[in-house]
Amino acid sequence: MMLGSLTSRATGFVRGAVVVAALGTALLGDAYNVANTVPNIVYILLIGGALNSVFVPELVRAAKEHADGGAAYTDRLLTLCLTALTAITTLAVLAAPWVVSAYTDYTGAQRDLTVALARYCLPQIFFYGVFTVLGQVLNARDRFGAMMWTPVLNNVTVIAVFGLYLVIARTASTAGEVTDGQLLLLGLGSTAGIAVQALALLPSLRAAGFRWRLRFDWRGSGLGRPVRAAVWTLLLVLVNQVAYWVVTRLSTSAGVRAVAEGVTEGVGYTAYSSAYQLWVVPQGIITVSLVTALLPRMSRAATDGDLAQVAAGLSRTLRTTAVAIVPAVFLFLVLAPQLTGLAYQYGQVSDADAKAIGWVLAAFAPGLAAFSAQYVLSRGFYALGDTRTPFLLTLVIAGVNAGLSVTSYALLPARWAVTGIAAAYAIACTAGLCCTALVLRRRLGHSLERTLGTHLRLGVACLPGAALAYATSGWFTEQLGGGLAGDASGLVVGAVVIGLSVVVLASPLRIPEVGELVAPLTRRFGSSGRHRRGR
Fold it and tell me: I need a labelling partner for 229 at 20 to 30 A (CA). Which of 29, 263, 269, 312 fits?
């Protein structure tokens, strides 16, 4: 499962690099990124958050309590969700101009381009929903691999689409230079990637023995419980999206303002979203993979009233994920320019553009551990069937994020506004985590043992390696220049140095989780070496 997630993120790197190389980081790239992000925003806002948080606990509960193992209940729930997705997608496509206006203040050709792209991209809402629904059915049956692997197909599809665009539209750099045919390729090509990702789950569902039929007999079938639970989740998502709306409006406005002030590098929404995509990679590979497997087990323990087991699962997951997440924080802090140069400095992206994304990534970095831990702890509430408390806690995160983002936009020059907005989110995640941990500890009646100490000791273990990584990466840049060779060399050596620092200091600092992670790798490579010598 983790290998699938890793492969997905690796191809996602390539996808991000190709997209940015094709469109750049200025206004053309901003138009596409807004249009391609809006479907996910609308989906999450109206139904996606409810599916992610409510679906698995409800399916697990139905499987334990219903005589048919929850088969009829699952059929009804899927029918309800797909009906809602069809209606939402249709309305969103019709409302594309108003949706784009809500997230940007674009005018003229820039607005027309964004609206046209949004019309092609908004059908993604339906396929996002299909992917989530079918994936959660698999997760409830303890089949986790397919949902981690099928995004690779999405990435490959989009890479092919934008590779073709690079060939046929190499010189297009502004909204007025993109033809209708090229818009069709970009928009429908991006939607095709999501469709392939969703439909590729069908063979795994058949292999799991799942058969589905439409059932509209919803009345008196017990669907009221997930619908009521979903209300709080929808409110949670609404609050998050208000904060995200603030960020999108401010970052797109910052990009326009920067161009007007003569700033040549892209410092608007594309810089923010590109840095964010890199920032969430460790959480997506490690945290999401572990929590995906953890949630069904926690839901069963919560159904049985075993809160100690729920707390133990959360504590173990937090400590295990920290082994990868905390070193990633330091890597992003000291090696951000090398990472963004390696990931994005191609095609229309200059060295200055890549460095601008690097500053945004470094601003995000301190909040990664809190972002990851918040994701884990929120699933603890969902396992308990509580969607109200996460909503109240989200008010803290969204409020801090929106408030500090507005402050950054108002006080900082256009060149640095988006960097400040990224730092605002890092601070908001940390504030939210402190509140969440306190509330969940009281709810469970059990402490999440050793988690804070593990994070702090890992931070100490990273410090010597981070300092040395910063120095060595600078040396490589001086010797090899700021291009691919210098960035790749500095990044690889710096990452290895940080990793070795953690491994070497794990024992004296008493961080057993590092040994637990390294031991299987040592045994595997050790046995492989003995096997080769035996030949």
Answer: 312
How far is the C-alpha of 37 from the C-alpha of 299, rounded, in Å?
31
- By residue count, the chain amounts to 535
Distance CA 504, CA 431 (A): 32
Q: How far apart are CA 449 and CA 415, in angstroms?
A: 43
DSSP code string of 94-149: HTHHHHHHHH----HHHHHHHHHHHHHHTTHHHHHHHHHHHHHHHHHTT--HHHHH
Please tell me the distance from the alpha carbon of residue 281 to that of residue 9, in angstroms, as a whole number. Answer: 6
Residue 454, class by beta-carbon neighbours within 10 Å (0-12 exposed, 13-18 middle, 19+ buried)? buried
Contacts with 19 (C-beta within 8 Å, 6 or more apart), sequence order: 29, 32, 158, 162
Q: What's the count of helices (H) and strands (E) in the chain, helices before strands? A: 22, 0
| Residue 189: CA count within 13 A, CB half-sphere | 20
CA distance 274 to 353: 11
Q: Please, what is the angle between helix 269-279 and helix 27-43, to 10°?
A: 60
Check whether 82 has a pLDDT greater than 70. Answer: yes
- Residue 112 near residue 31 (C-beta atoms within 8 A): no
Place of tokens 């969902």: 382
Unique residue bearing structure tokens 């794990």: 506
- CB 265, CB 318: distance < 8 Å: no
Distance CA 285, CA 320 (A): 13
3-state SS assignment for residue 506: helix
pLDDT tens-digit profile of 194-252? 999 999 988 888 887 777 777 777 776 666 666 666 677 777 777 877 888 899 899 98
Q: How far apart are CA 328 and CA 79, in angstroms?
A: 41
The pLDDT of residue 531: 47
Residue for token pair 């989780």: 513
The tokens 């439909």 sit on which residue? 199
Q: What is the DSSP letter of 262?
A: T
pLDDT at 534 over 60: no
Beta-carbon count within 10 A of 93 CB: 18
- Model-level pTM? 0.72
Q: Which residue has 């953690």 as its token pair?
A: 502
